[in-house]
Every structure is written in C-alpha cells, then in structure tokens.
Specification:
By secondary structure, the protein is an alpha/beta fold. This is Glycosyl hydrolase.
C-alpha cells in the first residue's frame, strides 16, 4: 500500500511519537517505527521506556569528548572519525536517529549547555558538525543537528522568545546550520524550544520552509525538541514533520479536524508523513536487537578513538620557562605531586540529556603512575586538595601544600575546574569563576615556589586569577572517558598539544558583550549586541582578552610567510621552526571595504590544520567559498557581495595575524557606507547601544513586553511563583526550593525539577502520552490564575472527555 492511500487519521498519527523515543509506524503501509536517542558525544540508549533527561539507566556506550572540546581540534576529519565510531554504536544499539550534534552559537560563556556546542563562530561550528554528521551517517544512521535555531540560554528555554535582526540571524546563528546541511546532508534536523521573533521554531515557516527547505535544499525530517511543539497544525503547515515525544492522540485529532475544516491541506499532511516514512525506510536496521550491547572489540577500539580525539583537542594555554627549561613536557626523572579531586575522580562530561553510561573510566593519578615505565615521570604522591562541592576544608588544602613542599618534589600537577553543578542542560552558570577553594589552593601551591602545572577541566571559559603565578596550563575541556590517558600523554610529551580555542576567553565575565542582558529573565531574549559576538566584539571594540579566539600553544614553534591571494583563494607557507614535530591551525580572516556596510573588524572565513615534521615547511591553501565575502542585505532580502578593497589576513589566532594583503573583490553590489544612525554599533561598543540605535539595526523598534498580569499556556511553571493562585504559587515555590536543596546536597542539578520549572503548561499535552489534552491545559492555567475550583472542574471533566476521545481515535487507527 502506498502512503497516499492511508487515511487522514493514519497519516496524522505518523506525525507524533508513540513513546518517549519511538516514532509511530504503519503496518498497512509497511512503515516501521524507528528509534531516536541522544546524544551528540555518546549514545544514550535507555533501557525500558526511559526518560528524556537521562536519569534512567542506559546501555554502556563510549563517552567521547563533548562538542565544545572536539571543536578545539579544528579538525573536521577527526570529528568524522569520531562520528563513524558514534554511528557504529548507534547502529549496534538499535538507534535509527542519533540526536546530535549541537551547533548553537556560544553567544555567552554562561550558557549551561555550551559544552554541547562547538563554537562562537559559525564557520568552525558548521565544518566540525559536518564532519561528525558524515561519520554518523556512514553507518546508515541519521544524524540530527540541533537546536534549530537562535537558542542561547537554558533559563526559560521552553518559554523564551529570541528577538534578533534578520542579518545577524542569517550571518551568525544560521550559517553553521547552513554549512552542515549543504556539506553533510543530514537526514534529520531538530528545532529548538524557543520562539524566534514571536514564532515558535517548530512552526516557523520562515525558518523551516523559506530558509531550510527552499534556500538550502533540505529535504529531510524536522523533529521537535522533546516537548517543544506548540501547535501540531501550525507545525505541519510550516514544515515541521514529527512532534516528540508522545502527545498521545490529541495532536492526531487536531490535524484531522484541521484537514476536515479546510484549514490544513492534505498535501501538507502528506508531505510531512512522507518525510517521516523516509527516515523509517533509509535507516531501517537489520540484525540488531534492542537487548544487544557493544562488542568488547568495538568498546576497546572506540575507547582508543575517544583518546585520539581528546589528544587532538587539548589546548596548551601557557608554558613558561623554568630553570630546567619549559615547564612542559614533564621530563624523565621528575617527581610530580598530583593534587585535585578531579585527578582521581574524573569529570569528563556534562549533565543532562547528553550524559553517557561510559564503557570504562580513567583517572589521571592511575594513568600517570602506569606511564612511569615509559615516561620516567614518577608520582611523588596524591592529595585531594579541595572539596568538590566548594566547601572550605583547610585540612585538604594544607595536606596538598605539604605534599608539594616536600624536598623531593620537582613539580606540582594541579587538576582543577568546574564541578557537575556548573554545566548542565536546564541551568545556566551564575559565574565564570571556578570554586574559590580551588583558586585558593592553586595560589597556595604556587606560593611553595615549586612549578605548578594546571590541568583545567571545564566545558567553557573560566576566569583564571592565578594565571600569572603558575608555570603551565593545559586545558582539556570535557575530554570523554579516555581523557585521562590523553592528558597524561600530552603532559609527558608523548603527544604534542595541537588544540586551539574555538571561543574567546575574556579576562572577566563583565567584559562579555552580552553580560548586561544575559540570561533574559523575561519572555524576550533581545540580541541587542547584534553580530558582535565573541571575537567579533573583542576585536572590533578593542577589549583585552585572556586568550583570543583560535589561540593555542605547542611544543613546536611555527612561522607563516609568503601570502599570495588569487581569484579562488589564498596560499602561504607554514614552517615548523623547532626540533619537535607538531601541528598548528592556519586561519584566514577577512575585513570588508572601509566604506562598506557594518561589519566586525575581522571574521574567520577558512581554516586548516597543518601537521609538520621538525623544520618542515608546507605550502598551505585555503579556498574561498560562498561564505567568504557575503553579507545579508536586509533591504533586498538576499545575500550580497560588496565590490571594493578587502583585507585578507592569515595567522594562528584572531589576534596574531602576521600575514595580510589587500584584495580587490568584484561583487554584485557597490560598497555602501554604514548608516550613521547605528551609532555605537559602528565601533562595536555594544554595551552603550541605545534603543534608537538598536531600532536602526533591527529595522524596527524593539519593545520588551512587561510582566504578564494573566498567566498563559506558554508561561513557564517557574512564573507561577508569583501567581494569584495559592495552589499554583505553592507548587512553583516548592519546586524551586526542592531543586536548590537537591543541588546543594548531591552536588548535581535536579534535572527533572529544572525541566518542570522551565516548562510551559502547554508542554503537558505533548509529553504525557495522551493523558492530558489542550483543554485540560487551559483548565490547569485557570488554577494558576487563581480560579482553583473552576480549573479543577475543567481538569476532571476534561480527563474523562479525553479518555473517551482517545479510545475512539485508537479504534479508527486499528480499523475496528
């Protein structure tokens, strides 16, 4: 039977999930259901029905480094290697659609989910994501890049409206997705929870049809984030294919009713059903059962892949000279004191839906001890040094300092960073600082006079008050289950660190361009900084940073010479001037005509990782492409290239570009000076932008709405804390209190409670497998607005009405 021959109700049923992780198939048409699963750096294949936040048990799988760490490799081929292993595990664990990678732009370093995202730059994010997608899909499994789009904060994530100008959206927040779609052809894409300029992402026709499908040529399935669908009918009209996880039959009836009323065309319904059916067909798994586990051989091989990825992604941030030479690598014969709770109890991934049940686990103390035979570096002792949750414990610190001060200790290895509470889905960070007890410990260790080598564990930038006092800093990010052995190999010189930062590290949080308005606590998250995100801001406004975008040291030394530009790209020579083989990341930046439209001072437009033997030179080529010179012309509603003299610059980070040349571009429009009414934007001084200047950038006045006096179905449960209804107010305040207590007690966020607090009531009808419908949600909101008895009556009556309707729909589907 052909898909078109199915009844309207059967096709409608295919457009929502049948359970937490499964789609609905159709036996009559030979369309099987398929399985979706997190995640972006390891398969979280849950046992039983499971839950979407990863609190339930899941099958063992390899935990690879997180996206924020892998991006520091600047190596799409390495990401593809990781993707191949990741896709193989997804296939073997009976997963059809792997929900990743995440490639939202890192607008602000405090976003709790930044560890899951690649970069502040769309070129890096897009190219790295494309590599991972190609690797995953080589196994017959669908990748699912997310969260599409303009998704930058966890607070109110299901009830937030991203207000942004079209040009910034296109150039910064969508270009990474565009690259991933055009270069890697993902079969699926996931929409974000938030609204974009007042329209939910999963029902945003401009986003899903005009841009994704018509402009970029995407022909796959668009799936909602779990609970992220608002209106099933609006989604189908706009290009949203599948609503997850499990709204029961409520959405089915809404779609059927819209077709019967003529407000939804059956052609749109057919198109969406065909997109879902195609995923079932092209990812059909054979010979795999849901009870299968990874083979021992694959688990071992993929652990080695995870180690290679971690090795290629570690970033040497400092390596000072000591009396015996550079602090790193550690030399044979050295006795090293190891300090830090995370040296023995590793932290190698973040919290939330991406959390993986790793097949094995390593720690730095054991790995450094085991490596002594081949490296000659001896562990002189280990001390915990600090309380992991940040509580003051003078005894721990004193014991660590006493160990470091011993006469036979040559150097101190301090492993510090962010704890499990700091980086999580559902929760933004409150500070860029690491716990004060760790900062105090590093300062005390440095005061012993021994060289202190810091291994920094964190998924995003942190402030480093002790940076000038330590001998070396190796940033390993969240490096996956093999991160400890990779770290030891880098520390001892068995591996030459080659990572470069994929985001700027500011001196302090207040230096960030969006620090004054992030995260938005109300409905509207206004992107008033425009295109001045990350290095685009710091370089244009002239703000000093701790580490510039693209920065990374090495045990080698490199030089750049002989830049030549032609019609299709640039060529230049990179030389390894040292006796140590290594790799650097060559980066191409462009600056537009001086009399052209508003632009940051420079923007990354290409990069390549270059491996060189000692004293070897190579000619390197970076080609121009559709992204190199374009800007989005809002007035003409199209991409344009300005004619004029551009500047091309090459180097190994955004602040160190030794090669530069003017280059004449013959574009399709003449250069047009920026509007003087943009005021502070012209110099990148976004912290002082006025509302009038922002209106010029946006093309219209931007007015943030006041606090709602009446709560609606799209206001988060957290907003009930100020409700007129005693019952709702008590529920919200109890949840807020409970989450805080759990986090304090366990050292980890209470993800389920956070999800509920961020969730708007309308999500109840999308995540309860049909137990709650939209009419019951309306009644629940009446309770929140103080109409307790009327609301309760509506809930009770709605429950029985909904149960009856569900039975009727089920009979239709079963042809009873």
């Amino acid at each position: 039977m052909e898909l078109e021959e199915l009844s309207v109700v059967e096709k409608a049923a295919m457009l929502s999930g049948g359970s937490e992780w499964d789609s609905r198939g159709n036996e009559r048409a030979g369309i099987p259901s398929f399985v979706m699963s997190d995640g972006p750096h390891g398969v979280r294949r849950q046992l039983g029905e499971g839950d979407h936040l990863g609190l339930g048990a899941s099958k063992p799988a390899t935990c690879f480094p997180t996206a924020g760490t892998v991006a520091n490799s600047w190596d799409p081929a390495l990401a593809e290697t990781m993707g191949k292993a990741l896709g193989k595990e997804a296939h073997d664990l009976d997963v059809n659609v792997l929900l990743g990678p995440g490639l939202n732009i890192k607008r602000n370093p405090l976003c709790g989910r930044n560890f899951e995202y690649y970069s502040e730059d769309p070129i890096v994010a897009g190219r790295m994501a494309a590599g991972l997608i190609r690797g995953i899909q080589s196994n017959g499994v669908s990748a699912c890049p997310k969260h599409f789009a303009v998704n930058s904060q966890e607070l109110r994530r299901q009830a937030s409206n991203s207000v942004i100008d079209e040009r910034t959206m296109r150039e910064i927040y969508l270009t990474g997705f565009e690259i991933a779609v055009r270069e890697a052809a993902p079969l699926t894409i996931m929409t974000s929870y938030n609204e974009i300029n007042g329209v939910y992402a999963h029902e945003n026709k401009h986003l899903l049809q005009d841009i994704l499908r018509d402009e970029w040529g995407f022909d796959g399935m668009v799936v909602s984030d779990w609970g992220g669908s608002n209106s099933a009918v609006a989604a189908v009209k706009a290009g949203g294919s599948l609503e997850m996880p499990s709204p029961g039959y409520t959405s089915v009836r809404e779609l059927v009713g819209a077709v019967e009323a003529g407000t939804l065309s059956e052609a749109d319904l057919n198109a969406r059903a065909a997109e879902v059916a195609r995923i079932a067909a092209v990812t059909k798994l054979t010979g795999v059962g849901r009870d299968d586990l990874l083979s021992d051989a694959d688990a071992a091989a993929h652990h080695e892949v995870a180690r290679r990825v971690a090795e290629g992604s570690s970033v040497l941030l400092k390596n000072a000279a000591t009396a015996a030479g550079a602090a790193l690598p550690l030399r044979a014969g050295m006795r090293v004191a190891v300090v830090g709770d995370m040296a023995q109890t590793p932290r190698f991934q973040g919290s939330g839906s991406s959390k993986v049940n790793a097949t094995r686990e390593e720690n730095i103390v054991d790995e450094l001890t085991a490596a002594a035979g081949r490296t000659g570096v001896t562990v002189a002792g280990y001390q915990q040094g600090y309380d992991r949750q940040g509580a003051e414990n003078r005894a721990l610190s004193d014991a660590a300092v006493a160990l470091a001060a011993q006469g036979d200790v040559d150097a101190v290895l301090a492993v510090v960073g962010l704890d499990e509470r700091s980086e999580s889905e559902g929760l933004d960070r409150s500070t860029m600082a690491i716990p004060q007890v760790q900062n105090d410990l590093v300062a005390a260790l440095a005061a012993t006079g021994k060289p202190v080598v810091v291994v920094l564990v964190a998924g995003s930038p942190v402030e480093l008050p002790w940076f000038d006092d330590v001998a070396a800093v190796l940033y390993v990010g969240l490096s996956g289950q093999a991160g400890a052995s990779a770290t030891v190999r880098a520390l001892t010189g068995e591996v030459n660190p080659s990572g470069h930062l994929a985001e700027t590290w500011p001196m302090r949080y207040d230096d960030c361009p969006s620090a004054g308005w992030y995260p938005a606590i109300g409905r509207d998250a206004i992107y008033r900084e425009g295109p001045f995100v990350g290095y685009r801001y710091y370089g244009t406004a002239g703000v000093d940073v701790r580490f510039p975008f693209g920065y990374g040291l090495s045990y080698s030394a490199f030089s750049y010479t002989n830049l030549v530009a032609d019609e299709t790209g640039v060529s230049f020579t990179v030389t390894n001037d040292s006796d140590v083989a290594g790799a650097t990341v060559a980066q191409l930046y462009v600056s537009g005509p001086s009399d052209g439209v508003l632009r940051p001072a420079r923007e990354l437009k290409g990069f390549t990782k270059v491996w060189l033997d000692a004293h070897e030179s190579k000619t390197v080529r970076i080609e121009f492409d559709r992204y190199t010179f374009r800007h989005f012309d809002m007035a003409a509603n199209k991409w344009a290239v300005e004619s004029g003299i551009w500047t091309l610059a090459v180097g190994d980070n955004a602040a160190d570009l030794p090669l530069a040349t003017p280059f004449a571009v013959a574009g399709d429009v003449d250069a047009k000076p920026a509007d003087p009414a943009l005021g502070h934007y012209l110099t990148g001084d976004v912290k002082h932008v006025t509302d009038a200047e922002m209106a010029t950038l946006f093309g219209h006045e931007v007015i943030a709405p006041g606090k709602p006096t009446v709560l609606g179905v799209n206001d988060p449960i957290s907003s009930w804390a100020d409700s007129r209804g005693f019952t709702a107010r008590t529920v919200a305040r109890t949840l807020i209190s409970r989450e805080a207590k759990v986090r304090e007690k366990t050292g980890a966020p209470d993800l389920n409670t956070l999800f509920i607090l961020n969730m708007p009531p309308r999500a109840m009808s999308k995540m309860t497998q049909g137990m709650v419908d939209s009419a019951m949600v309306d009644a629940i909101v009446k309770i929140a607005n103080g109409h307790t008895f009327r609301g309760l009556g509506g809930v009770i009556a709605g429950f029985f009405r909904n149960q009856s309707a569900n039975k009727h729909t089920e009979k239709e589907l079963n042809h009873d």
